[in-house]
Request: fold
Amino acid sequence: MQSNIEPSSQKELLDEVLQGSPTVIPGQPTHTRKLYLESYGCQMNFSDSEIVASILSEAGFTTTREEEEADLILLNTCAIRENAEQRVRARLRQFKQAKESRPHLVVGVLGCMAERLKESLLEQEKLVDMVVGPDAYRDIPNLVEQVNGGQKAVNVLLSREETYAEISPVRLDANGVTAFISIMRGCDNMCSFCVVPFTRGRERSRDPESIVREAHELFDAGYREVTLLGQNVDSYKWNIDNKGVVKDESQPVVRFAELIDRVAHVNPDMRVRFSTSHPKDMTDDVLEVMAKHENVCKYIHLPVQSGNSDVLKRMNRGYTREWYFNRIEAIHRIMPDCATSTDIIAGFCGETEEEHQDTLSLMELMRYDMAYMFAYSERPRTLAQRKFEDDVPQEVKSRRLHEIMAVQKVNAAERTKSYVGRTFRVLVEGTSKKKEDQYFGRTTYNTVVVFPKEDALPSTYVNVYVHDCTPVTLIGTITKNQPES
Ligand code: 5AD
Ligand code: SF4
Reply:
């Protein structure tokens, strides 16, 4: 899962506040309480925040972009790297100060930092009133009342079943064009560097009917692109257990390829993307279903993490460099034009200079459109923390990370350039941040295109001829010519 640790500022995030008036629950105060919600980390966290906003709207809260007017401040946190945690702590200290002049303000921590830091956040540092883990969001209204009654509140229980399947997310940051749909929760993979299996618990998939229903609702509301989200979407499964035993013989088994097929059938004008794929689990039937549907975007995020098989073994990734090449070959055999992106970790435990060179050479061969690159950060409780020494010095990690980034920068610019002179079908997402008279949108390959607005409208498709580019953005004009893709 892509992880950008930048917090979405509430001003950007909450473009659209809750629609209509909040439901008033009998016995609840009738004045509207205000929720300020800030999200850190991966897309899954942003998607979870939309579920939290929905649960709290039922309890009478409306969202606000102004933290000063909030009755309840929630931070949806990320624990994937140490610096993500540090940023959250700094933010919590600011809110603690705000509480001095606003005694009724309730501050809570949600998400991945909850389980590990509950004692320290609540008891030692006294930074927050409430700590809620990723599977306990339905309990938030009760926990808020508990805090209002003068107690600290905590629920970090992980669940084997919770998928929030029937909750209609409140679309925060809504551009009305693109939306996330969470299709599963947790992860069973135990990559040795990763804290996610500990913070988000066991993998479980959501009922496919509720997923397809949500996609229909989004289409009817004018949305034209959905991204199906899971930690490892290739292991999505419904009505079959991990051992392959069918649970209910009278019902169909649904795996990821079938799920994509069903969502793609919602409407040919609804684009479908997904994230994140896992190289060990990505099967050809998923690629074939992608190729079959024009509206399934030709873009795969396939994190490799390292280009060296010994490092991959220490990372417990379940594949080798050769197997990864095999999967990339399969992608290009079935969809010759498919774009790819990846995640890379520099300086994992015991990584030698030669092993690092293998990552650089892999990147040269792959020519990814996009890459998310990180220095290894040791996380508590993970296999790597228990088994290996975090022995690559910080300056070496940094230097390797910069080398990886330098290769990617050149490759990405070349990839972008290769799209110049071609015509693409582009979904109009909104006004360009830099130029009021221009729109931006994306190609099927997920590359951003800017072009003069003419009389086009957001949430529609236009054909754009690309005549120029920057290293990461295509520059074009709307054309009547037919697109290649
Ligand atoms: N240190 C650095 N990067 C990490 N990631 C996950 N755990 C760590 C860690 N401990 C990266 C991986 C993953 C992405 C979401 O974050 O590349 O794919
Ligand atoms: Fe973490 Fe690996 Fe699961 Fe991704 S697949 S969430 S890296 S354990």
The CA atoms of residues 305 and 344 lie 4 Å apart.
